Amino acid sequence: MTRSDSTTSSSIIKAAGSLRLHYLPKPFFSRQKSSELVASPMDWQGQKLAEHLMQLPLVLFAVLAFITGYVLGSFQTMLLIYAAGVILTSLIMVPNWPFFNRHPLNWLDSSEAEKYPKPQPANLGMKKKTSKK
Amino acid sequence: MHSVMLRANALLTFSVTILALMCAMASLSDNFNSPSPTAQVQVLNIYRFQKKRNGDDEVSLTFNMSANLQSLFTWNTKQVFVFLAAEYETPKNALNQISLWDSILPSKEDAKFWIQTTNKYSFVDQGSNLQNKDFNLTLHWHVMPKTGKMFADKIAMTGFRLPETYR
Fold it and tell me: Is the CB of B21 inside 8 Å of chain A's CB atoms?
């Protein structure tokens, strides 16, 4: 992370702030420190969990809805059960719940990264390539 | 799945795909239904049989019909469109089909019915071929599903004849 990254991100966050997104509850939007600006509110394990929490309930609700609708002979019942399943699934996996961030990654602070400049490519290697052409 | 928007998008896409699969399965489940419809029709009176000014024959008749199409309905049936057609042959056309009456049956209860009426739509020939003509009265139906393929079938009731002279 270099200084230019954090400046762009902070300007985006400031612009987003003008949209009053910070009035939403914490799972939907949370003010974060500058070091967390480019980190997401979810970690890798959380993303895997979110994907499973979407696929499994939806498939289960679909099977339940179809069987119930077929047995009762009502198409509407099938659709209602499935719609309830979709809403329930959206409530458990769409917002930024804290349990999605139980294994957070520790990003390097930008001030720390600047102490160690990036290595430059060696000039000898470049000259060799051009002479071969 | 790192942002709210991305997860909402994934949820929407996945749930709609599964909904499409459920509808396909519902449509396929209709194949397990083996319908056994019945129908009978009687022509009561042919009260008009004229040649119109442009040379075409026209017939007006009253008929009664009883039918039981309840076995066509499944959980995936929205409605059944039913119509009664007069079918006959002329030198010009191998098959002439003229719809005399139609109706929409929105539910299973409506599918068992008896009706006596004049023809709802005019029975007009292309030309003047109807004298002494044998014709069938065929009951056609289209089963319209809530989702999936519509299928159509019919019952032909034969043995009807138009008069020899105009009246």
Answer: yes
